[in-house]
Amino acid sequence: MDEGCYNTYTISDSDDSVIDEGRRTNETSHKDNDCFSTEEEPEFFLQQKRKKLTSPEIALQRRDNNKQKYVQTNEKNNSIENPEPNTYVPRTELGIYTGTNNEQVTEKIEPKRKKRATKEEIEERKKEEKARKDAKKRLVEELKRISPKECMKYVTVHIDINLMNHEYSEQIVSEIEPTDAKYKIESNSTVLNSITWSRQISDTVSEEEHFILLIWEFDYVKNLIVSCQLLNKINDIKLHKTQLSIIIDSTADQLKKIKSKKTGKNSGPDILNSLEQMMLNCQVSFRFVENKKDIGLAVFYLTKSIAQKPFKLNKYKEEQDGCDWYASGHTKNCVTVDKNGIGLTQLWRQMLSQFPLCGLETSEAIATAYGSPIALLEAYDNCSSRLEGETLLQDIPVRRGFGPLASNRRIGPELSKKIYTFFTDNTGCTTLSQE
What angle do CA 141, 143, 145 make, to 5 degrees? Predict the structure, then answer.
């Protein structure tokens, strides 16, 4: 047969070969029609011709379908990238198969290895870790130094040497020695007859407290008042220490003269007025001490208070940071109320117990008749007049004691009127003591 009648269609992976074969389809069909007619060709050759005529279109469709499947698979797995938009890259288990120009290339996928840190990065990480541990250790040490059980160990009392000439010096030392606090007897040239404190923050660093205690004799204070130098003396001392307190060592006879009602030049009331003026203008506290032992106790209590000051300040700051508007209070005799309302009755009884002449039995009797404040307010609203509201609770019986010795009494009009006034008054100026 003629060579042009039997063309072999070869489909490669390149787009040009497929397009060329598609273009040659029409030429081949014309050549085949020239060689044989439909009636003269055998059935076998007709079937081969149909396959040859349709093979380029089928191959092109299959190629497009395979490209779509490959793009969808590549988007889901995110494991390979297609370098060329018109290249079909089938995925295999061992690697990536790329077929270009009848060539097969297999490339293995290797897992990404972690980048090994350099020596500089390792050293920097070690320094950061060491700094973090040092900061944590330093914080633990600071908290330990201000704890109430350990704070006295890190406080030192500095006693002026001039105080050792007085009788109360032995009392001061005897009160400090049993504690964990340290004391030093040294000369204070700036402020005589004074006691100061210092705190050890770390093993090598210590700081001075801003508080100073003066122990003056009564005659010395009196002379300062007579010469009108008391306020000037206090202001000069406050240049060194901002917080100041004075203990005035006096006798019983001297205090009697101060408390006497006689008036005159340099008399007792003049001394008290001068000291009160000093306290208000200079914000300085003072106290008279007769017993020498009380001076030692005063120094001990001040030392303990100064040692616990940082701990109490931190605790107060934590309470205030939780809620700015909250007024801090104590937790003594508080009633716990859970989410189910258990404890409300006990809280209502305790609220009633705050009124004068309202004891435990009385509050229980009122809480039995009116189980909550809302119930009592509703009863007051239903009263037709003020007199009816004031006498609403007066006939409630109150049981006193148990057993055969038990007795009953009434609440009475006075307490009933106080409770009514408390719950119904809207002025905010009425006092219960006058009711």
Answer: 70
Total Cβ atoms within 10 A of residue 234: 19
**DSSP letter, residue 91:** B
Contact predicate 278/231, CB 8 Å: yes
**Single-letter code of the amino acid located at 86:** N
Q: What is the dihedral of CA 119, 122, 126, 132, to 10 degrees?
A: 140
Spell out the per-residue pLDDT of the chain, length 435, in tens. 444 444 444 444 444 444 444 444 444 444 444 444 444 556 666 666 665 555 555 556 666 666 565 555 555 554 444 444 444 444 444 444 444 444 444 555 666 666 777 888 888 888 899 889 888 888 888 888 888 888 899 999 999 999 998 888 899 999 999 988 999 999 888 888 999 999 988 878 888 998 999 999 999 998 998 888 999 999 999 888 889 999 999 888 888 877 664 444 444 547 888 888 888 888 899 999 988 889 999 999 999 999 999 888 888 787 777 665 555 565 666 778 888 888 888 889 988 988 887 888 899 999 999 999 999 999 999 999 999 999 999 999 888 777 677 788 889 889 999 999 999 988 877 887 654
Q: How far is CA 293 from CA 175, 213, 249, in A?
A: 9, 16, 11
In contact, 193 and 237? CB cutoff 8 Å? no
What's the 3-state SS for 121-162? Answer: HHHHHHHHHHHHHHHHHHHHHHHHHHCCCCHHHHEEEEEEHH
- The model carries a pTM of 0.49
Pairing assessment for the beta strands 397-400 and 407-410 based on DSSP bridges: antiparallel
d(CA 141, CA 179): 21
Contacts of 284 (CB under 8 A, 6+ apart): 234, 244, 245, 246, 278
CB atoms within 10 A of CB 166: 16
Q: Which pair of tokens denotes residue 244?
A: 């100041």
CA distance 344 to 371: 9
